[in-house]
């Protein structure tokens, strides 16, 4: 009778897509985290002395790189809504002529006074996932893909309302980015990813020279807890050597993966704090796990002694995507403004030949959100790199959606504590224009800021688009978001 009931329930509700074969950003990161938990080898630390590690890189283009701004301009995206009032560009920028390595970008200018607004580079994580498919068309970009996989709708809280935003598919092998040296499409690492992104920017600015010297910010999420600070480190280290095209002002990173071992502890602590695991299980984990490089058998047994259930670890309170017996997709429940099946819509959109032609993609290209890339190098902790950047005077903000269990706020707090900075403005709520508490924020010496976004998961702009925009705008201005609700007079 029990088996029959379960079968009927599956038929009625549909099968969850959390175990689908398609690699998504969430799958890539969790796979990476598991692999790093058992990494015992010691890697050379490229980031210990950035000035020495990157001094061999060029600080300017020797000759104009191929490609033009005019050729990259998008006339219109297939299915875009009417009255689009901003410029869009996309195309390839070569980062290695020797290996035939080229990175794909999508750039949207602001519809409002673009000439006076800053330039922001957005990087999604993975490692090995697309900033085009996730960041641009599911999160902070001007459009979202509709369930038909063919048309687009406007995102009212897109970040290009306040900045000119550049989305980069990185490294080679991700999305439409590629290398003619086939092995490079399946193997990469932190160092090459950062260097390629730097070369990309150097060449891209030749194509868009009006952005040279413009206020420049780097933003991202997830494994971009590595990508963003590392790219900022390369730029900062080369600035004194003459890389004057960049006017880097700050970095803005959401739900970042910062520390292999602090993240392990933070994940289980978050699950306990939110009632997913019991006091007894948490106590057993604490008793047998050191959250270090080597763990014993008892730790593994303690960690595997409970069932989480079919929930989205990237937002433990969000609905999941279900597939009906007829193949149609639907959300398990309703959450305003969020569709857990959007991955599938985006996949269909970017594999449409009309879309690929419109955005200047190479012919016969198959697009997927993430690539199965073997990762060759990554520091255990990003805290030393963040500390170095803060000491240079760079504006550094980190934020966390408070419903994420994969890069949870509990883990990020441990890394923030490791920075050992004095608090200058203590933890307090911040408000949206509707007088809602958008989250909480705290500032430290050197201007370093840590903030939360209330009610958001791993992909903060997907779950809380307005709150993410308020926080992002505050970051650009270099001031904390409002500390008090808006006063409405009678």
From TrEMBL:
Residues 43-54 have a biased composition (Polar residues). The keyword Signal applies. GO terms for cellular component: vacuole. The lineage of its organism: Eukaryota, Viridiplantae, Streptophyta, Embryophyta, Tracheophyta. This is Carboxypeptidase. Belongs to the peptidase S10 family. It comes from the Eukaryota. It comes from Lolium multiflorum. Keywords: Carboxypeptidase, Disulfide bond, Glycoprotein, Hydrolase, Protease, Signal, Zymogen. Gene3D superfamilies: 3.40.50.11320, 6.10.250.940, alpha/beta hydrolase. Residues 43-70 are annotated as: Disordered. Residues 1-20 form the signal peptide. InterPro entries: AB_hydrolase_fold, Peptidase_S10, Ser_caboxypep_his_AS. One of its GO terms (molecular function) is serine-type carboxypeptidase activity. GO terms for biological process: proteolysis.
């Amino acid at each position: 009778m029990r088996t029959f009931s379960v079968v009927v329930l599956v038929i009625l509700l549909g099968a969850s897509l959390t175990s689908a074969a398609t690699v998504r950003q969430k799958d890539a990161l969790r796979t990476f985290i598991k692999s790093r938990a058992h990494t015992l080898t010691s890697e050379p630390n490229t980031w210990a002395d950035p000035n020495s590690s990157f001094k061999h890189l060029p600080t300017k283009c020797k000759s104009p790189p191929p490609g033009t701004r005019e050729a990259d301009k998008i006339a219109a995206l297939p299915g875009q809504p009417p009255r689009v009032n901003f410029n869009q560009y996309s195309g390839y920028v070569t980062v290695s002529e020797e290996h035939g390595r080229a990175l794909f970008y999508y750039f949207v200018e602001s519809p409002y006074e673009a000439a006076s607004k800053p330039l922001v580079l957005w990087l999604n994580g993975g490692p090995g996932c697309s900033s085009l498919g996730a960041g641009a068309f599911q999160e902070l970009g001007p459009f979202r893909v509709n369930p038909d996989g063919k048309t687009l709708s406007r995102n009212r809280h897109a970040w290009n309302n306040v900045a000119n935003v550049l989305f980069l598919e990185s490294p080679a092998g991700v999305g439409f980015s590629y290398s003619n040296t086939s092995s490079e499409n399946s193997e990469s690492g932190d160092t090459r990813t950062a260097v390629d992104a730097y070369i990309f920017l150097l060449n891209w600015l030749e194509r868009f020279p009006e952005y040279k010297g413009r206020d420049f910010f780097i933003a991202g999420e997830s494994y971009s807890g590595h990508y963003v600070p590392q790219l900022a480190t390369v730029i900062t280290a080369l600035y004194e050597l003459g890389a004057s095209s960049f006017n880097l002002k700050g970095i803005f990173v959401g739900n970042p993966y910062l520390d292999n071992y602090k993240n392990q502890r933070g994940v289980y602590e978050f699950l306990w704090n939110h009632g997913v695991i019991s006091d007894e299980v948490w106590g057993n984990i604490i008793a047998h796990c050191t959250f270090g490089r080597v763990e014993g058998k008892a730790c593994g047994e303690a960690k595997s002694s409970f069932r989480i259930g079919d929930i989205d670890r990237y937002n433990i309170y969000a609905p999941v995507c279900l597939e009906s017996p007829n193949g149609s997709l639907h959300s398990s429940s309703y959450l305003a403004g969020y569709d857990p099946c959007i991955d599938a819509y985006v996949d269909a959109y970017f594999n449409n030949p009309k879309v690929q032609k419109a955005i200047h993609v190479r012919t016969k290209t198959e697009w997927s959100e993430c690539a199965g890339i073997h990762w060759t190098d990554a520091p255990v902790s990003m805290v030393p790199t963040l500390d170095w950047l803060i000491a240079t005077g760079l504006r550094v903000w980190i934020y966390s959606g408070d419903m994420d269990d994969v890069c949870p706020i509990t883990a990020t707090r441990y890394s923030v504590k490791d920075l050992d900075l004095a608090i200058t403005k203590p933890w307090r709520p911040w408000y949206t224009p509707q007088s809602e508490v958008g989250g909480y924020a705290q500032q430290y010496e050197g201007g370093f800021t840590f903030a939360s976004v209330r009610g958001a998961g791993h992909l903060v702009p997907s779950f809380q688009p307005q709150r993410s925009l308020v926080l992002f705008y505050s970051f650009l201005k270099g001031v904390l978001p409002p500390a008090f609700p808006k006063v409405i007079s009678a």
